[in-house]
Design brief:
InterPro entries: CBS_bac, CBS_dom, CBS_dom_sf, Diverse_CBS-Domain. This protein is of the alpha+beta class. It contains 5 helices and 5 strands; from the N terminus they run H-E-E-H-H-E-H-E-E-H.
Length: 137
């Protein structure tokens, strides 16, 4: 059954991450050079403190421009701090439900608050495909 397939079996472990004190322009550069639209923000101990997205970058630029301030700042000023997460033992069907209900592209995977990976909608589709193909052959 698909419920037996866990997030840790398909999550991405090698992630682009930011710290809260990362300059906004560095985040913009990373997003412009890599095929990602968001990245977890961690503290020095590896605990998840937020997520920075392309939209957060745009919000930061517009906010500063609107207030006639110099564009800049840090990831911590503009990141999203209310982040949906899953535990590594969560089954892929439960995660698929979260994707549908919350409209997210990716969900950080944490163990006791520490970031251990990230699962995307594509990861879930790959897991379903692998499971079905295993049953077919």
């Amino acid at each position: 059954m698909l419920q037996s397939v866990k997030v840790t079996d398909y999550m991405t472990r090698q992630l682009i991450t930011f710290y809260a004190d990362t300059p906004l322009f560095k985040a913009i550069k990373v997003f412009s050079e890599h095929p990602v639209s968001g990245a977890p923000v961690v503290d020095e101990a590896g605990y998840l403190v937020g997520v920075m997205s392309e939209v957060d970058c745009l919000r930061g630029i517009l906010n500063k421009t609107y207030h006639k301030e110099e564009v800049g700042g840090t990831v911590g000023e503009f990141m999203t701090t209310k982040v949906d997460t899953v535990d590594g033992n969560t089954d892929i069907i439960a995660v698929a439900e979260q994707f549908i209900q919350r409209g997210r592209r990716r969900i950080p995977v944490v163990e006791e608050g520490k970031l251990i990976g990230q699962v995307s909608r594509k990861d879930i589709l790959r897991a379903v495909h692998d499971f079905i193909c295993k049953e077919c052959h």
